Amino acid sequence: MSVKTRVYEGKAKILYTTDDPQILLAEFKDDATAFNAQKRGSIEKKGIINCSISSKLFQQLETHGIRTHYIDTPAPDQMRVKALKILPLEVVVRNIAAGSLCQQTGLALGTVLKKPLVEFYYKNDQLGDPLLTSDRLFLLELATPEQVDTIAHLALQINKSLCEFFGRCDITLVDFKLEFGLDAQQQLLLADEISPDTSRLWDNSKETDPNLRVLDKDRFRRDLGNVENAYQEVLQRVLKAIESSK
Ligand code: 5GP
Predict the structure, then answer these.
(1) Which architecture characterizes domain 6-82 according to CATH?
(2) Is the CB of 56 under 6 A from ligand 1?
(3) Which of 41, 44, 173, 191 could disulfide-link to 166, CB 3.0 to 4.6 Å?
(4) 152-158 contacts: CB < 8 A, separation 24 or more?
């Protein structure tokens, strides 16, 4: 029986070693933070819900040829993942203007973008995850030009696949954040999680009330209430969409 060692604790997950040095165990936490951890709280059952949603989405993406770090889910709040060297980049894809895009450009909330926008942020809590220019990204040697091209291409492929999938859930994928890592062969794999914590998801069945539409972490950020219900709703719709496609 091996002793699992904690290798990293983030805001939403704890990573442990396993018997196999190529494999890590990610434990999803109920802890919730926002605004660079200035707002802290907890969302009941979030660990289990986000682990389930992420697992299903990673499996969906794999069937569309996107390589991810996902291996399996040995427990409801645990995911076994391939050990990767994570690039210090947050890759955000946007279909509709919301959040920092509205704050920084003046675009009205809900503006449908003519084409998806792919943005790179420096994953650095101390600096508040600043938006990067490509010159700054290369200055800091955060990735090579080839890696940036591959990531941008993958991000758009992932967006296309997820938009189609969430459409079947009657949900609009407004925007989301991705992280990528390199395996031992220097191949880029999708890492981290895709969940209501890392995306904006709007309910298409409640188009009349913008606040009711929100099924993601903005409910926590903006104190809209019913956070757990919203996360559960996303999970139920994801499971139903997968079931009905069998
Ligand atoms: P924004 O730049 O508008 O704050 O975020 C854009 C999208 O990326 C949102 O779906 C947001 O949830 C996600 N995102 C951006 N940065 C982070 C982050 O540091 N942590 C998490 N969980 N999500 C992020």
Answers:
(1) 2-Layer Sandwich (3.30)
(2) no
(3) 173
(4) 152/91, 152/118, 154/66, 154/180, 154/188, 154/190, 155/91, 155/93, 155/118, 156/93, 156/116, 156/118, 157/64, 157/66, 158/61, 158/66, 158/93, 158/190
CA of 171 to the centre of ligand 1 (A): 18
- Average pLDDT across the chain, whole number: 96
Band (3; pLDDT cuts 50, 70, 90): low
92 lines ligand 1 (CB under 6 A): yes
pLDDT tens for each residue of 50-85: 999 999 999 999 999 999 999 999 999 999 999 999
Rounded CA-CA distance 43/53 in Å is: 15
CA-closest candidate to residue 74, choices 24, 108, 13, 11? 24
Contact 163, 175 (CB under 8 A): no
Domain 85-244, what architecture? Answer: 2-Layer Sandwich (3.30)
CA–CA gap between residue 236 and residue 53 (Å, rounded): 9
User: Residue 18: its pLDDT value, please?
Assistant: 97
